[in-house]
């Protein structure tokens, strides 16, 4: 049960009274008459073999207010795409699958590469970007939401609460971020958000006081949540990061484009869990280690855009301030866990902090060596300006893939 506290620069919409799902969905059905809703699901083919996505599909089949579901499918060959067509064919809603590794979408990607407009890295950012492009091409949805396909605690309440602030025509929000407690029956999770992002932002506020952007980031209860919703007209202007800085990058983009009173966060789940990344202490190219570097670079990059000046000495000061701040947070989390009968391994927590502290300096060095790095994928408005037919071509490619494989269901 959430509290009603409003803190920071963005509105927080709580789960105060456990309003019945049926009431929420009845409102959403009414809202859908003026604001049809599209749900985006970036997925790996391997997730089709997992119970999490199976449970998600079973829940979504009963959702009455969706006008469209757009699935981005990565790492699938022709046989696997045919399997995906059958797998998602159980959805009663209008739905389309983007076969990102298929010949048609790969050809379209090469056209964008030739213009210097294509995503440079594979991953969720690239997948989500193409899905959002298809949403623009389809034109079916005015309220758009996205969530992951590996949520093992999924319930129908999650998309209902995620859509509500954007779909309600009486609200003025343009962008909504989901949040939740990353807690299971036995432990507190969410190490990167708890042990990196919040302590880092609090540390940066000491070094760069009176910085609105840092106050803004500090307003979000779970800044790394992969669930968000937005009005369709937001999509065209978004530049989506292609690395692990996706969530922070999106928050930075809407901060740049919209007043804070047009942004909100909403409690979407009493419990939330998904697959966990390894810490990867000895591999900066994977797991939480790479994630921490990419996220930290994204924050530094935005601060630099706002006029912050960095040096090697600055990054050493940030590391020292972060390390002390993060250790203080461990004590708070440990006490919170104990009071709630949960487990928290202090040794593993401090190991993560030591890794993140070292990676703050690594991220700083990377930034200083390449300050002009632009990991953002261009906005769809820019792409359309360069290739006016691109959205029609994307839609045609998706439809052609569907028609070719429909007979194999």
What's the quick description here?
This protein is α/β, with parallel strands linked by helices and 409 residues long. It has helices spanning 21-31, 51-60, 78-88, 103-114, 124-138, 157-167, 191-207, 212-217, 232-235, 246-257, 287-305, 312-339, 346-369, 380-386, 390-406; strands spanning 11-13, 37-44, 66-74, 95-99, 143-146, 175-180, 228-231, 240-241, 263-269, 376-377.
Shape: globular
Q: How many strands, what sense, and barrel or not for the largest sheet?
A: 8 strands, mixed
CATH topology: Spore Coat Polysaccharide Biosynthesis Protein SpsA, Chain A
Largest beta sheet: what is the strand line-up?
A: 1-9-6-7-5-2-3-4
Estimated helix fraction: 40-55%
**Overall tally of domains:** 1
Low-confidence segments, given as residue ranges, are none
List the total number of helices.
15
In angstroms, what is the radius of gyration?
A: 21 Å
Proportion in β-strands: 5-15%
> What is the CA-CA span between the terminal residues?
44 Å
Oligomeric form: single chain
**What is the succession of H and E elements?**
EHEHEHEHHEHEHHEHEHEHHHEHH
CATH architecture: Alpha-Beta Complex
Number of strands: 10
CATH class: Alpha Beta
User: What is the residue-averaged pLDDT?
Assistant: 93
């Amino acid at each position: 049960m959430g509290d009603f506290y409003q803190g920071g620069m963005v509105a927080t919409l709580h789960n105060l009274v456990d309003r019945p799902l049926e009431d929420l969905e009845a409102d959403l059905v009414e809202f859908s008459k003026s604001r049809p809703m599209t749900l985006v699901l970036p997925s790996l083919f391997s997730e089709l073999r997992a119970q999490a996505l199976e449970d998600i599909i079973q829940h979504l089949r009963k959702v009455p207010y969706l006008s469209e579901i757009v699935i981005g499918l990565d790492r699938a060959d022709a046989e696997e795409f045919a399997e995906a067509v059958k797998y998602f064919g159980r959805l009663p809603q209008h739905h389309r699958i983007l076969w990102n590794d298929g010949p048609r979408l790969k050809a379209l990607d090469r056209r964008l590469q030739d213009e210097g407009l294509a995503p440079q890295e594979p991953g969720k950012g690239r997948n989500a970007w193409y899905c959002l492009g298809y949403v623009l091409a389809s034109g079916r949805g005015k309220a758009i939401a996205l969530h992951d396909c590996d949520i093992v605690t999924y319930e129908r309440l999650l998309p209902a609460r995620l859509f509500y602030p954007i779909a309600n025509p009486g609200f003025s929000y343009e962008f909504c971020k989901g949040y939740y407690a990353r807690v299971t029956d036995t432990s507190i999770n969410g190490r990167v958000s708890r042990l990196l992002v919040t302590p880092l932002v609090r540390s940066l506020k000491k070094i760069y006081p009176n910085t609105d952007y840092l106050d803004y980031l500090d307003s979000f209860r779970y800044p790394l949540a992969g669930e968000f919703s937005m009005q369709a007209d937001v999509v065209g202007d978004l530049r989506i990061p292609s690395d692990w800085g996706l969530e922070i990058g999106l928050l930075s983009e809407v901060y740049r484009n919209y007043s804070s009173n047009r942004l909100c966060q909403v409690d979407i789940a009493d419990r939330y869990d998904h697959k966990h990344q390894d810490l990867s202490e000895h591999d900066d190219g994977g797991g939480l280690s790479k994630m921490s570097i990419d996220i930290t670079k994204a924050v530094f990059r935005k601060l630099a855009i706002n006029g912050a000046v960095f040096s090697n000495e600055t990054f050493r000061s940030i590391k020292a301030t972060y390390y002390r701040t993060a250790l203080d947070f461990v004590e708070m989390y440990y006490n919170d866990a104990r009071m709630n009968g949960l487990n928290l391994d202090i040794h593993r927590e401090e190991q993560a902090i030591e890794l993140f502290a070292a990676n703050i300096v690594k991220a700083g060095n990377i930034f200083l060596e390449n300050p002009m790095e632009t990991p953002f994928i261009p906005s769809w408005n820019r792409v359309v300006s360069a290739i006016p037919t691109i959205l029609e071509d994307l839609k045609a490619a998706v439809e052609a893939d569907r028609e070719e494989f429909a007979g194999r269901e």
